[in-house]
């Protein structure tokens, strides 16, 4: 059965329109990203990893170029962050100080002390 | 330094492009062929150069200026040799070109492959069709610009990748390999085993290479590598469909891939899943082209082996893919006789060799055990397999994910509108083994989930959309081989 030419053209037009509409809908995020980029504040604060990199910039200078260090985390009294965010913070620490290895399970002469919004390196002689 | 970086990207791409051109078994240039070869060369170039860097790390330690010179010299020499060989062959006109005639017989070296009659600038093509082709082209260019902008903003706002895997696995490994100097093996220490230290190294080493050529560590390189793989995947799909079904169809396939919600997100997140999907698509496209156009040819099989090896060098799932390809080719090829099958398998393994050797060394000498395999045991695995509720849960999650990815909605709607490809129009793509590989991969993923020692729900939520993304470009490729092109759907043209 051959369909009339006009009907066939409409179907083709609709088919291409569906594909292009899908593309436009999937690009909706572009608007939000552009808006975020437009906001100076968002540019600095949006990316958690970059914030973490800034936090560790000073600490990195106090660490050796290579080797293994320990890790300790400190919380405010009464606060108990969930396991997932604690692990994430620990992993972010490793990412920030690589290639120095961060062992979360053992003590080392050098330890990264991670407080809520600051970090420091402490020395534990004789350990 | 920027010039060095550019050189580091261009030289391997050029060398592999010339290799593809040299081994390409067809005489005439089909529509989309250069796009296909060029985009495949981008990914395969990155893959091969990462193997070279890995060999240097193992044999000579941390790369220095000598490495830069050696690598540049290697790729320049290879490009030069291949360029001269191509020129000579062109002059002599005695290339190893083979063709398949209507009955599937191979004619060598004469004969031309019937180019799909949907090219853009066919002389005398009726105006509505030319308008349609131009419209689709404009839509594709618009789509690419939109997605490039999205990629750019995403990379500027989240330079380390918005979600976990990029920094947690790939860029962390790259930092260890680049900044670790002669202690680069620390990247695989038991202390960081939580970051999947057993994952292969194509992606981190590509990043390290970029940093090395640029002379410093910057978030620009992982984003650039991600950009190259994301848009090269679109290019491979476009080129492959254009070769087999014409340019309009190729452009539409590329548009559909660009419109998948997760595709660009995963790409700009610097995950390894998009590079893996690039290599999966590339391998299967080459095997399909070989089966359709030149079934006796082995050079495309070798090139497919090279890409499959790169897949295994990208992610562990790539190993499953290599196994699936070998099994599928065995099942499909056994009818044609053991001799042919043996020749084909050997050609495939030759292509697999460079990345295969690197992977073998990595897995046996450096990588810690894989968490999914280490967590298995006969009894618990059998128990998990026998647990029907787990299978149901995985199947349900897979179904939900297919719907969420739009593939289950978009493709059937498009199919209903455009209809099936007319059976008598042009050469019929041979897709048996490609379909089989997709089926085997899905079965493999299903079994991995059912037997996972991790918490099943969490495992599914954290990875299923990425895992299925490995296969979507291939599914779209198969779909656009089977659906009518707009020109075919419009019906026979009433040309004078």
Strand content of chain B: under 5%
Strand order of the largest sheet of chain B: 1-2
Structural class based on helices, strands and sheet pairing of chain A: alpha/beta
The largest sheet of chain B is: 2 strands, antiparallel
Q: Write down how many β-strands of chain A occur, each being a DSSP E stretch of 2 or more residues.
A: 4
Topology:
The complex is a heterodimer of chains A (about 130) and B (about 500).
Chain A lengths: L4 H22 L1 H11 L1 H6 L2 H15 L5 E6 L9 H15 L3 E3 L6 E5 L4 E5 L4
Parallel strand pairs in A: 1-2, 1-3
Antiparallel strand pairs in A: 3-4
Chain B lengths: L1 H22 L9 H28 L4 H28 L6 E2 L5 E2 L19 H31 L7 H15 L22 H13 L5 H26 L1 H13 L1 H8 L4 H21 L5 H16 L2 H17 L4 H29 L4 H4 L3 H9 L1 H17 L2 H12 L13 H19 L5 H14 L2 H11 L3 H5 L6
Antiparallel strand pairs in B: 1-2
Describe this protein's structure.
The complex is a heterodimer of chains A (127) and B (496). By secondary structure, chain A is of the alpha/beta class. Chain A is 54% helix and 15% strand. Chain A has five helices and four strands, in the order ααααβαβββ. In chain A, helix 4 packs across helix 5. With 496 residues, chain B is an all-alpha fold. Chain B is 72% helix and 1% strand. Chain B has 21 helices and two strands. In chain B, 50% of the residues are buried. At the A-B interface, helix 1, helix 2, helix 4, helix 5 and strand 2 of A face helix 4, helix 5, helix 8, helix 9 and helix 17 of B.
């Amino acid at each position: 059965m051959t369909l009339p030419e006009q009907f066939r053209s409409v179907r083709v037009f609709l088919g291409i329109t569906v594909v292009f509409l899908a593309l436009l809908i999937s690009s909706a995020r572009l608007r939000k990203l552009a808006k975020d980029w437009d906001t100076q504040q968002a540019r600095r604060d949006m990316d958690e990893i970059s914030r973490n990199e800034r936090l560790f910039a000073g600490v990195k200078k106090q660490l050796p170029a290579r080797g293994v260090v320990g890790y300790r985390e400190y919380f405010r009294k009464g606060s108990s962050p969930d396991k997932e965010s604690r692990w994430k913070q620990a992993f972010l620490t490793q990412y920030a100080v690589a290639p120095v290895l961060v062992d979360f399970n053992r003590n080392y002469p050098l330890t990264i002390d991670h407080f809520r919004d600051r970090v420091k390196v402490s020395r534990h002689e004789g350990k | 330094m920027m010039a060095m970086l550019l050189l580091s990207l261009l030289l391997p791409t050029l060398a592999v492009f010339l290799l593809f051109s040299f081994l390409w078994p067809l005489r005439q240039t089909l529509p989309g062929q250069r796009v296909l070869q060029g985009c495949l060369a981008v990914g395969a170039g990155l893959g091969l150069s990462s193997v070279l860097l890995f060999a240097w790390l193992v044999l000579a330690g941390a790369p220095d200026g000598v490495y830069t010179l050696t690598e540049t010299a290697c790729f320049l020499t290879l490009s030069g040799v291949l360029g001269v060989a191509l020129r000579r062959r062109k002059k002599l006109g005695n290339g190893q070109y083979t063709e398949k005639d209507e009955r599937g017989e191979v004619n060598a070296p004469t004969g031309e492959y019937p180019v799909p009659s949907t090219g853009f600038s066919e002389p005398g093509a009726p105006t509505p069709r030319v308008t349609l082709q131009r419209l689709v082209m404009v839509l594709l260019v618009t789509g690419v610009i939109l997605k490039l902008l999205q990629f750019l903003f995403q990379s500027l706002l989240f330079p380390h990748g918005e979600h976990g895997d990029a920094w947690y696995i790939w860029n962390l490994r790259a930092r260890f390999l680049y900044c670790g100097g002669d202690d680069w093996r620390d990247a695989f220490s038991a202390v960081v085993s939580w970051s999947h230290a057993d994952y292969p190294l194509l992606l981190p080493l590509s990043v390290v290479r970029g940093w090395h050529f640029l002379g410093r560590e910057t978030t620009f390189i992982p984003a650039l590598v991600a950009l190259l793989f994301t848009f090269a995947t679109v290019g491979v799909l476009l080129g492959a469909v254009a070769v087999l079904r014409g340019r309009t169809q190729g452009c539409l396939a590329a548009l559909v891939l660009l419109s998948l919600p997760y595709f660009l997100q995963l790409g700009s997140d610097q995950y390894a899943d998009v590079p893996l999907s690039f290599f999966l698509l590339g391998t299967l496209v080459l095997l399909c082209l070989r089966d359709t156009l030149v079934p006796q040819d082995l050079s495309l099989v070798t090139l497919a082996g090279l890409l499959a090896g790169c897949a295994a060098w990208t992610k562990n799932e790539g190993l499953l893919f290599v196994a699936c390809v070998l099994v599928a080719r065995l099942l499909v090829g056994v009818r044609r006789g053991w001799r042919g099958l043996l020749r084909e398998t050997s050609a495939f393994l030759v292509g697999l060799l460079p990345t295969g050797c690197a992977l073998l060394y990595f897995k046996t000498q450096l990588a810690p055990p894989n968490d999914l395999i280490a967590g298995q045991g006969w009894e618990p695995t059998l128990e998990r397999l026998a647990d029907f509720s787990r299978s149901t849960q995985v199947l349900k999650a897979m179904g939900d994910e297919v719907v969420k990815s739009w593939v289950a909605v978009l493709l059937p709607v498009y199919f209903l509108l455009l209809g099936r490809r007319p059976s008598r129009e042009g050469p019929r793509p041979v897709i048996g083994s490609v379909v089989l590989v997709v089926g085997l991969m899905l079965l493999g993923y299903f079994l991995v989930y059912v037997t996972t020692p991790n918490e099943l729900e969490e495992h599914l939520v954290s990875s299923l959309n990425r895992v299925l993304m490995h296969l979507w470009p291939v599914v779209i490729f198969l779909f656009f081989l089977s659906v009518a092109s707009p020109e075919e759907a419009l019906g026979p043209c009433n040309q004078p």
